[in-house]
């Protein structure tokens, strides 16, 4: 059973998400929170598998709340998916840099929301369909200059290649087709790369690909 915590200051939004999630045989809503402070408190108490976290909330916003969660080693298994009203919310890229496993727009289709919850539990990054690459490029272009690429020295040539493909938004299946390998082999390369670089999940690997200069905005191969 996948346990979800809903953090949003709008009770109507929480009610809608709860009705959808609780109707699934493999998902249950463990708790709700109306602000970031309450969200962090309930997350520490309940250790849910997934948190659906609104970016804009009173007391403590979703970005700061996410940072508190992802910086706490005791909560390493908790996955945070940010909720935003607009696809190009100015905080989305920073949220992923802060450790969120992805983001969804609030008016996403019900099937996509369910897929998102299940995907992040499986260890996949989640970005709303149709805007993934455009959004990453948009926010990477506004982010700081590429950091020193020293950390990439730990990677093999193939791992660097795989990291670049992750950075431009390709799934494991797409990477497998591009490199003419099996999806399992592609997944293994991605996993080893994350371990070597200390990336919390696939979303952070995307960020590292940009920050190291391995991928630059516009390289949407």
From TrEMBL:
The modification 4-aspartylphosphate is found at residue 54. Residues 3-121 form the Response regulatory domain. The keyword DNA-binding applies. CDD domains: LuxR_C_like, REC_NarL-like. The keyword Nucleotide-binding does not apply. InterPro entries: CheY-like_superfamily, NreC/VraR/RcsB-like_REC, Sig_transdc_resp-reg_C-effctor, Sig_transdc_resp-reg_receiver, Tscrpt_reg_LuxR_C, WalR-like. SMART domains: HTH_LUXR, REC. GO terms for molecular function: DNA binding. Coiled coil: none annotated. Keywords: DNA-binding, Phosphoprotein, Transcription, Transcription regulation. Residues 148-213 form the HTH luxR-type domain. One of its GO terms (biological process) is phosphorelay signal transduction system. It comes from the Bacteria. This is Response regulator transcription factor.
């Amino acid at each position: 059973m996948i346990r979800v915590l809903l953090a949003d200051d709008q009770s109507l939004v929480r009610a809608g998400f709860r009705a959808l999630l609780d109707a699934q045989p493999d998902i249950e809503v463990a708790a709700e929170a109306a602000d970031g402070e309450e969200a962090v408190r309930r997350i520490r108490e309940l250790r849910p598998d997934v948190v659906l976290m609104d970016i804009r909330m009173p007391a403590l916003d979703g970005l700061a709340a996410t940072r508190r969660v992802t910086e706490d080693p005791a909560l390493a298994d908790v996955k945070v998916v940010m909720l935003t009203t607009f696809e190009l919310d100015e905080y989305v890229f920073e949220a992923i840099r802060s450790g969120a496993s992805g983001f969804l727009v609030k008016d996403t289709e019900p099937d996509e929301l369910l897929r998102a919850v299940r995907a992040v539990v499986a260890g996949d990054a989640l970005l709303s369909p149709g805007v993934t690459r455009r959004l990453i490029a948009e926010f990477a272009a506004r982010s700081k200059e590429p950091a020193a690429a020293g950390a990439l020295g730990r990677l093999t040539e193939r791992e660097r290649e795989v990291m670049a493909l992750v950075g431009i938004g390709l799934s494991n299946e797409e990477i497998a087709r591009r490199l003419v390998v099996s999806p399992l082999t592609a997944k293994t390369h991605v996993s080893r790369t994350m371990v070597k670089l200390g990336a919390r999940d696939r979303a952070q690997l995307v960020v590292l690909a940009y920050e190291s200069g391995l991928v630059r905005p516009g390289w949407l191969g």
